[in-house]
Fold each of these.
Amino acid sequence: MSNTNYIFVTGGVASSLGKGIISASLARLLQARGYSVTIQKLDPYINIDPGTLNPYEHGECYVTEDGAETDLDLGHYERFLNQHTSQNNNVTTGRVYQTVIDKERRGDYLGKTVQIIPHITDEIKRRIKILGTKHNYDFVITEIGGTVGDIESLPYIEAVRQLRWEMGNHSVNIHLTLVPFLKASGEHKTKPTQHSVKKLLEEGVQPDIIVIRTETPVNEGIKAKVAQFCNVQANGVIESRDVPSIYEVPLMMQKEKLDVIVLEKLGLEVKKTPELKTWNNFLKRLKNPKGTVDIALVGKYIELPDAYKSIHESFIHAGVVNEVKVNVHMVNSETINAETAADLLKDYKGILIAPGFGSRGIEGKIEAARFARENNIPFLGICLGMQCAVIEFARNVIGMEKANSAEMDHSTPYPVIDLMESQKQVTDMGGTMRLGAYPCVIKKDSLAYKAYQRINISERHRHRYEFNSMYLDDFVNHGMIPTGTNPDTELVEIIEIPNHKWFIGVQFHPEYQSTVINPHPIFTEFVKATLS
Ligand code: GLN
């Protein structure tokens, strides 16, 4: 086995306590100490990947460079570490079972009865270890989705138990729990944490470190109690208070010495605390904006900010570059029409039309694109948002009545957005879109070039439909031009309207590549345009 150290992050008491952010924060701190780190998420559901899941079920589907459709936590990992993740960084029960069942069909188990233990657990262990062995990271942080005690997470906890037994002092378990504050009695309560640790112990895993999520600061007595009843060292109880921004969590964890305790547990040398200069600078600017700007995000999941997670985060990064706080206002595309558009959108300095699938809310998105175009309001259309801008332009500028995307209307007379050739034979829904990073070449005299400052870029995709190049001349003659194309296929990836203050539609998803260290230039230029 290599010298990789494995950190397992489990959760108890409740879901959504922020295991992903704690994992990403710890990774950031270890990275600042010069270690190579990667983070992996194990998701105990049976879907092969979240690509087929509705955003109501699962929030945003994040797409990696290598085209994996993954959990949105991978977005946090990339934004915190400024480092790509891959298919190997997200494992689901579906994928684990699929591999085992395929092996069984091939006869690889040589007549044995195939069982959860050892076959499923072995496959989980293989997928955890592969990151360490293949890429030789110093640390692999594995976040186990769900909550201890769930039936579906049992094989994962068992795999962790076995790995800890095999790896000895090359592994650490961090258990994240909730310590609620009871107003009636005026005190923090540790019992749920105690119970959740008991559950973990029942499954054979003793945590080394307990991170307690709390709304308000807990006193030392509470920490001591958790330590005593949960059998961890006093300095192994870490407080994770609610903070206004997730980007404060690494610094909070540094103050709490989470990284130091992890290094000590692994018997590694603890050198002096590294400075997080760029991170601190980012936070300083984040907390002290010189102004604010209101931007509309037109989409159909208005009550679900997680559906557009990476877009929200990209606006935070771009706001910091421009020294403003971007207030993103969700506008329900289903409520927008020719009569309501002005009322619903007039107060915003910029309009972003979100990615999406299916026809719900599509006419509202098209109307929003018209409003932005006609009123010279800075506009960014992402994927479906770009497609809506194209449809709108075809209908209202070129005069192609009933122009549409073939996704919404099979029999439109003008399929200005059409199914890609490569998609025509596809029947399976899962993992079959045009996914992952593709190169794009940018025209020099364009807003895109102004943003990227180079002609060769690479951006991530997740779609089946495309700009229909059959109509390219009509668009160019009327003032909507392609400024970015795929060098191999000539697919149109970026459109702009030069005769407008700032109007860009991108077929790809810039939001997947924005990080704290590298805010995305399309977002920073968009926000800049809303300020002038
Ligand atoms: N539904 C559109 C397509 O498949 C756009 C997808 C998206 O916005 N991600 O092409």
Amino acid sequence: MLVRTRFAPSPTGYLHIGGLRTALYSWLFARKNHGQFILRIEDTDQKRETEGACKVIYDTLNLTGLTYDEGPDIGGAFGPYIQSERKEIYLEYAKKLIEKGAAYYCFCTKERLDSLREGRKDGNTAYDKHCLNLPKEEVERLLKEGVPYVIRQNIPNEGVYTYKDEVYGEVSVPLADLDDNILIKSDGFPTYNLANVIDDHLMAITHVIRGVEYLSSTPKYNLIYDALEWPKPMYIHLPPVMRDKNNKLSKRHGDASFKDFLDKGYLKEAIINYIALLGWSSGDEQEFFTLDELVEKFSISGLNRSPAIFDIDKLKWMNAQYIRQLPPVEFLRLSTPYYVKVLPHNRFNFSLISRLIQPRLETMTEIYDKLEFLMEFSEYDMELFVSKKMKTTPKDCLPFLTSSLKVLEKLNDYSEEGIKDVLLKLAEELGIKSGKLLGPLRTAVTGVPVTPGGAIEVICLLGKEESLRRLKISIDLLKKYLSTGEDK
Ligand code: GLU
């Protein structure tokens, strides 16, 4: 059997992280089984879809490497792959269902449906099958007169429908719990209830992989397969992705879209790796996977039934590992857009910045914080010159800084090597350990307690003019501070 899976998102303008996980698992299952992965856009709900909303989906799948074999933008033998372009097909099958007694025209007005609901005390909102019993001639007359109608599924009132889900096992649903849902709306568009079945069948989908929210309505879809005498696909329903124990990850909380995570500085590889583990485990200790490794290891038996909690700290940790493992040129390529946003062009050595910050980031957007000391230098706390480790006080530091200023003024080679040479020589002349000199010097040219890199790298980055300017300011600040009290 040729395995064919599909990803069938609605074009909402963003791709939910849970949706991306569904796409990932469908893609993995297809690739693992040397099958095909199809993209179908389910847009029958929306009045008008913007092209942009579909593009978000195409771009995300291509960016993450979840390439599809057939889809709206690339075509394929089973197209069209956008449901709004398949309108006529659904109507044809809905009519077949009517012929077989599995569906019926319904002419009920909104008013009747409202009063039906209101008249019920038990909160039951199910349709009462009123139009199922209309005489055939009456139906034909109403259709001829052009009275607006919908087509509803005729679901038996009694019995239990049982089917097998590959993750959740045997699922049984009493048919009385299922409403006679609308299959074709009054605008002629199908609902998901009908369209998913028709499309999965016509597109020769063998395995339906989707969220668990469809688990209990799948019997309805199966009744349609049965009525049309079509073979049913295998079902693989996936546990939900939760923000915490009680809440789903949602767009509303700004924590759900793939793009949000990219914008927050997560690498696509880390996101994919992390979401692969949300509901699936390889059965061994391995946590880091490339897409190829996932293809190799993926299996339905590794899927979990219990809801997966999206642990942002875990993702952050994983992202940091991914950032650290990037080859330096790749990190430079990815970080440069962040640099050019905040740093004046051509003044800073981006390779050196990259070398300093790459090991210190959890997310790429932290680059901005790490670069702040390059952009800003203002009055700061002189207590920063107190070092318990070096046993130095602000007073001790002043001569270190003034002698550093002298040698740095004379220096012309502001390469790391050049700076290192003169400063280490100076420490020797002063008879102190290099750290005792470099620590205060780093503070003096940055004014902050923590920077990526020490004095030598920072001075090299700032260049001669800016380093000397800052050093002079710091010497003045320190003098002023020392002049105001004793024993500092
Ligand atoms: N359009 C549906 C959704 O976005 C797809 C469900 C399915 O995969 O069948 O939830």
